[in-house]
Amino acid sequence: MKGTVIMKSKNIFWGLFFLLSAVFIIASQTVSFASVGIMSILATIFLAAVIISSLVQLEFFGVFVPFAFLYMIYDEPLKLKIISPWLLLASAVMISIGFSLIFRKRHKRFVYPHWSADSCSHTGENLDDNNPHAKVSLGSSSKYLHADCLQSGQFAASLGELELYFDQVQLSPGGAEVFLDCNLASIKLYIPRGWNIINKISASLGEVKENNRREKPAENAPLLTLAGNVKLGSIEIMYI
Asked: Nearest to residue 232, comparing CAs of 90, 108, 107?
């Protein structure tokens, strides 16, 4: 069932991509692209792919921010009104936030009635829970996790910075899954280097990177699955 859904999503992506490519080819016959340049055309193809992929997943930051860059590229060839790049990007971010709030996606697996939240300051906190959850907004926070059988976790950061320390954590024998939601923010994970990590995080104009991983963990090592998304931000996995 899951494979069928993924295949349908890929079909939608490539279908829309080729349709827009056809529109682009036709437009190139009616509009002068001499002032655009090959790099701008390549950027257009890349941005179009990001937009289509984001539309399929309803990731609005990956839709409106690329549109802002496309406007900057083609305002002169198409004789559009010149708008400050900073105003365009600020508007795109505001529109993305608005659409994300209106069409907020529900994640059925993780449902928590209350959050541990930090804002407008830097805080440090010990979380003694096998299913911890916390969020940071307009601030920074360090969370030191303590668990004897971690099963799941949910953490969110928006316009802030969140550090999560897993060195005092024992995972469930069947493994654990942690969901991360990173919007215009930075999340750093400090994870024992002997763990097996499955990375399922999706990125929209953001990045997920791993540092300090030197050796491959054992096959029977504790298993941690990372899921969620990052939009215009970064998630960094530090192995300790």
From this structure: 90
Q: Supply the DSSP string of 138-203, one letter for each residue.
A: SSEEEEEEEEEEE-EEEEEEESSEEEEEEEEEEE-TT-EEEEEEEESSEEEEEE-TTSEEEEEEEE
So where are the chain's domains?
Answer: 2-102, 117-239
Rounded to 5°, angle at Cα 35 from 33 and 38? 70
Strands (E), 37-151: 117-119, 122-128, 133-137, 140-150
Phi, psi of 233 (to 5 degrees): -155, -160
Beta carbons within 10 angstroms of residue 54's beta carbon: 22
CA triplet 169, 151, 236: central angle to 5 degrees?
60
Evaluate whether 156 touches 178 at the Cβ level (below 8 Å): no
- Answer whether 107's CB lies under 8 Å from 90's CB: no
Distance from C-alpha of 116 to C-alpha of 114, rounded to nearest angstrom: 7
Non-local CB neighbours of 37 within 8 Å, separated by 6+ positions: none
Longest dimension (CA), the chain: 66
Helix or strand holding residue 5 (H, E): helix 2-30
69-112 tens-digit pLDDT: 888 887 877 777 888 888 888 888 888 887 877 765 544 444 44
The residue to which tokens 């307009």 are assigned: 138
Express each pLDDT in 177-198 by its tens digit: 999 999 878 899 999 989 999 9
pTM: 0.57
